[in-house]
Design a protein that fits this description.
five-stranded mixed β-sheet; Protein Yojf, Chain: A; 5 helices; Trna Endonuclease, Chain: A, domain 1; alpha+beta; 274 residues; elongated; 13 strands
Length: 274
């Protein structure tokens, strides 16, 4: 029996069908296969299934890979993806298959030592074969809509804080504009220093050679403008690689390491013992 894994549909498990269109399979992938309970039997919409099982995994595609029989976590998500995990790494699975793909669940041969076999095949013809010997844990969970990852301390946050605190670069500095537009892209910050000269500031979380090169291109273009010239550059980051500092020094670009917590007012260097 073949189910097509694409994305969840509005069909319930009872309504899903196993016709060639695969429309029912989008929902019934994690439903029941006939009257026999399958490891993919979610039974309801939008569930993620966690299965801890002794299994053997074989992959065939652009290369071949074999995982001998061992206890592993099988993660079957509502989007149709299937991944196999071990306990010796963080987030990266041992093997996986992304949708859209077709899944065939069958009963293993009696003398094979396995109870059930999943064959997952994608549209390129790659196959992932999961042979199940014993199920130790089996649970389904509805995760709901994820609000997404909210990152703190990204370049945009640093840029806002530095725009609000021009004194980070020196007394008497004033902000001219954030995202100052040039013909090759916007400069993060444009300031005037204590003497009234223009200073272009490129902001990065990690300062590397590419950032110095980027600022160099901006400076070349801005110094060609008689209304701005002379413009000097400052490369600001939470961490600046030694190679980037060396390159910046050859371009007359000043490097400034900024402390995100200090900019947010969460850390006062005067309160530190050392």
């Amino acid at each position: 029996m073949v189910w097509v894994i694409q994305r969840p549909s509005a069909l319930s498990t009872a309504e899903a069908c196993d016709d060639d269109s695969g429309r029912g399979g989008r929902r019934c992938l994690l439903g029941r296969l006939g009257t026999r309970r399958s490891l993919l039997s979610f039974g309801t919409v939008g569930l993620v299934r966690l299965i801890v099982a002794r299994c053997q995994v074989d992959y065939a595609g652009r290369l071949t890979a074999h995982l001998p029989l061992a206890t592993r976590l099988i993660l079957a998500k509502a989007d149709g993806s299937v991944s196999i995990h071990a306990d010796d790494r963080a987030y990266k699975p041992l093997n996986w298959m992304n949708p859209p793909c077709a899944l065939t669940v069958s009963t293993a041969a009696e003398d094979s030592g396995f109870t059930e076999v999943w064959e997952i095949r994608n549209r390129d013809g790659d196959t992932l074969l999961i042979s199940i010997a014993e199920v130790l844990h089996d649970s389904s969970h509805e995760l709901g809509v994820d609000p997404g990852l909210v990152k703190d301390g990204v370049e945009a946050h640093l840029q806002v804080l530095l725009a609000e605190h021009p004194e980070t670069f020196g007394a008497g500095w004033t902000l001219v504009q954030r995202e100052y537009f040039t013909a090759i892209g916007p400069v993060d910050l444009l300031f005037r220093d204590e003497s009234g000269g223009y200073v272009a500031v490129e902001v990065k979380r990690r300062g590397e050679i590419d950032g110095v090169e980027q600022l160099t291109r901006y400076l070349t273009l801005m110094n060609a403008d008689p209304l701005l010239s002379p413009v000097r550059g400052v490369f600001a980051a939470q961490l600046i690689k030694p190679q980037a500092k060396t390159l910046a020094s050859t371009r007359d670009i000043t490097c400034v390491t900024v402390d995100y917590d200090v900019l947010r007012g969460l850390d006062d260097p005067a309160d530190r013992l050392f």
